Amino acid sequence: MQAQTHTLRSTAAERSGTAHWRTVLAVFKLRIGVIIALTAMAGIAVQPGVELSAAQVAAIFVAVLLASASAGAFNQFYEVELDRRMRRTRARPFADGRLQPHRGWLLVIAALAAVGVTLAWSATNAAAALFTLLGAFFYAIVYTVWLKRRTWWNIVIGGAAGSFGVLAGAAAVAPELSPQALLLAVILFLWTPPHFWSLAIVCRDDYAANGVPMLPAVKGLAVTARAVFAHVVALVGLSLLLPLWGAGPIYLLCAAGGGAWFVARAWQLLRSPSTGTARLAFRASLVQLSVLLLGAMLDAAIRL
């Protein structure tokens, strides 16, 4: 009986420890960080230049991931009071009290960003490090601190954070950025607003109640749906131009397939603006981006 009790206590302690680490990791928004790091891989894939070693590619992935994680943690640290009032975010670790947002977290956040930028610089070059830094800076400071509570342009301007991952990867190959790398960065810039506006429609009442000027709360569903559709058409159209600079059939198939799905869902949202069609558009944005990045990387891998 004593042995059984000891085993049960050990199992409970292990589960508690695992839950604690999951809580800590949730602060850093790692799912978003991985997506941003994958955009850096796509930047490497489309940029002509020297071939990076496996170690350099891994270093850029980790560098961008660390920088993005630091920005994600700062976002939660800075917005803890707002997160507590929003249904979508009230279960975040700082917001629900599982972790205390003390100032020591700022040291951890700064250290992560510094390690990421230093790693990008030491493994490749200063340009890659600069873009890695700018990605974190735009999300943490430009979007979170300066723009989010001031203007509905917040996600348009702050959305540039997603483009810097592409540029970091491309600059690691060659600091003189190619047209295809710049085009992919513009595609990411155009992707962020419809992705987030779709989610913002679902959370519109929360944003309105808490005075956050997201586009649906300020301009309404119909205007937001039109903005989403226009951005989707523009970004999908631009994504189909990348073969002009050498992207192959695998990329084109992925860009066309994922793009068509996103356009179809955005059209549904335009025809019938609602939380239901907004959720479908939001999910389609994730599918489109994932397929696009995968296509760029597979296309490059086959051409090697």
Structure, explained:
With 304 residues, the chain is mainly alpha-helical. The protein folds into 2 domains: 26-177, Tetracycline Repressor, domain 2; 178-304, Four Helix Bundle (Hemerythrin (Met), subunit A) (Up-down Bundle), CATH 1.20.120. It contains 14 helices and no strands. The protein has helices at residues 2-26, 30-46, 54-78, 80-85, 104-123, 126-147, 154-158, 160-173, 179-202, 204-209, 215-219, 221-239, 249-271, 275-303. Helix 2 packs across helix 14 and helix 8 (160-173) runs antiparallel to helix 9.
What descriptors fit this protein?
mainly alpha, single chain, Tetracycline Repressor, domain 2, 304 residues, 79% helix, globular, Four Helix Bundle (Hemerythrin (Met), subunit A), 2 domains
Unreliable stretches? none
The CATH architecture classification of the largest domain is Orthogonal Bundle
- What is the 3D shape? globular
Structural class: mainly alpha
